[in-house]
Amino acid sequence: MSIDALPMLSEQSPGIAVSRRSPLSVLPALVRDPLQALPPEVYREPLVYSRVANRQRVFLLKPAFIQETLVRNADALSKGEDVRRALGPALGQGLLTADGAHWRWQRQSVVPAFRHEKLVGLLPAMISAAERTRDRWLAAGSGAPIRIAHEMMRTTFDIIVETMMSGPGGIDVVRVERGITDYLKPTGWIFALSILNAPDWVPYPGRGRARAAMRYLRSAITGMISERRRSGEARDDLVALLLAAADHETGRMMTDEEIADNLLTFITAGHETTALGLAWTLLLLAHHPEHEARVLSEIDAVTAGGPVRSEHISELIYTRQVFSEAMRLYPPAPIITRTATRAFPLDRFMVPERAVIVVPIHAVHHHAAIWEQPERFDPERFAPEQARARHRYAYMPFGAGPRICIGSAFAQMEAIAILAVLLKAVRLLPKSSTMPAPVMKVTLRPTADAEMLVETRS
Ligand code: HEM
């Protein structure tokens, strides 16, 4: 059938799962936790259609549909209203939030910072940051309680500012972490107001704190950029790439505001996600000692009793499988959304212009038709043979298509380095007998920052 003859997707479309919940039931759930507001059908159907407050939403679960949309029809999609409202006030028009030519230029400008050779050169800085965390824990003594997500955020923040900005340059790490948490806390309200088409000025609880947090982050970064321009010091980092970036069509350079948008994007997108992936990994290992023992014996065999070094990271195959499986169960970015800027074909239908496309990565990763016993923690799913047998878009913690995470290789190297350094020196014990429940605040966090006990390994 030619594209022109395809019918528009709607609640009348044959063979389509339709979610018919009222705004009254969806909106409060959205405010509490957008994951709880997903139609339950997303965990078993290939595609779900819903219309809430006149907004059409198409939830994609089947990997082939995700590929057809995010990869083949990427030019029919924009980041859309939810992303603009939730992240725009903080990240402006940086790489994560921009669309079209402005996005393309920024992506091309920063690609050199993420080439493989460049990333390998960053490994010593990643290992050193992990060693500082380890030493802090060892100094606190055996039995000391730690808040695991907070500890991982300190470590990955240390790494992102060291590797991308050549150091914190006076930025207050604790204030940044609190600022990001304050900023993300009320985002459920923003999604709910966006569905209702409420204007941007409508107040919501937590907005004042979120705005104050954003002002601190931006002023700290702007100060650092002015200082770099003033000193003219040559450095080989992301700031230097952004200061030198010129649009190859117009020759235009980035303004300080555009550079700040991107640095804020890299600082936030580049440390919180990895930290959460690590926190969930360490919690899972603590609850599954048999897998922890296998990770430890791999680290011991690869490092042969010496300290963790750069060349060890690519050899820690099982450790990497564990991290992948943790991100399957707890994807740090659990939902991504787009808006259709024009109608486009999908399967037997046309997706209408202005429909919101939702890819609930969390539901894809727990889907009954894709995974056997989806709730079971089983790192063997990522052994090469099993991974090869799956559809490429059955697992997508870093997204898919041209907007795929630019930092995915960075994040994986960093995570393995941190796990190797920490697990070699300490054993982390869970304080509770059950895994903490996840809650989505743009990223997927443990409900209350889970406490763990540090025990020195003899
Ligand atoms: C485990 C860690 C990470 C996870 C799970 C993750 C996840 C994601 C996902 C799902 C997207 C796509 C969003 C969408 O399609 O709407 C994304 C985009 C992005 N990520 Fe990551 N990320 C991680 C680490 C990082 C790191 C370490 C950096 C930087 C050093 C980074 C920088 C970015 C940027 C700049 C984008 C926007 C790319 C674009 O639109 O061109 N991320 N990330």
TrEMBL record:
Its cofactor is heme. The keyword Kinase does not apply. GO terms for molecular function: heme binding; iron ion binding; monooxygenase activity; oxidoreductase activity, acting on paired donors, with incorporation or reduction of molecular oxygen. PROSITE patterns: CYTOCHROME_P450. Heme binds at residue 405. Belongs to the cytochrome P450 family. This is Cytochrome P450. It comes from Microvirga lupini. The lineage of its organism: Bacteria, Pseudomonadati, Pseudomonadota, Alphaproteobacteria, Hyphomicrobiales.
